[in-house]
Amino acid sequence: MSADRLLLYDGVCALCNRVVAFVLRRDRARRYRFASLQSPAALPYLQRHGVDPDAMDTFVLVLDPDTDRERVLVRGRAGVRVLGEMRGLLSLMRAAAWLPTPLLDWGYNLVARNRYRVFGQFDACPLPPPEHRDRFS
User: Residues with Cβ < 8 Å from 11, sequence gap 6 or more?
Assistant: First the structure.
């Protein structure tokens, strides 16, 4: 199966990088590709969908990238979708999809506001592990 999801994340955020590593370990079907929000690869998707390219606190999931079905989920809605697609107990996150977007985004924003302070920040986007570099743009 080819990648039909593109996860755009803050490349200097330690929490965001941990989420990417988490998804990489669990995505055996290789459905996900990744690009940092700071990368030139992210810009066309952000522009096409009206997402502020300077908003580094935004988590963006592009579904069916580069097809006529392409659409994006952002912030809390994107987080719930990604976690809900993981196996095991995290699949229970699918149940949160019924929550209203403002409530999901409130929780997302709470974490996003404090992520650098709590989890740390890199000076530059870390390189992905060699065995996964083909999944990064």
Answer: 17, 36, 37, 38, 39, 122, 124, 125, 126
Q: How far apart are CA 112 and CA 116, in angstroms?
A: 8
- pLDDT of 1 reads 46
Nearest to residue 32, comparing CAs of 129, 135, 125?
135
Q: Which residue numbers in the chain have pLDDT < 50?
A: 1
Q: 114 CB contacts (<8 Å, ≥6 apart)?
A: none
Report how far Cα 128 is from the mean position of its chain's Cα atoms: 15
Distance from C-alpha of 97 to C-alpha of 36, rounded to nearest angstrom: 25
Q: Which residues contact 108 (CB under 8 A, 6 or more apart)?
A: 59, 75, 76, 79
* pLDDT attached to residue 122: 84
- From first CA to last CA, the distance across the chain in angstroms is 18
Residue closest to 57 by CA, chosen among 102, 12, 103, 96: 12
**What are residue 72's DSSP bridge partners?**
62
pTM (two decimals) = 0.88
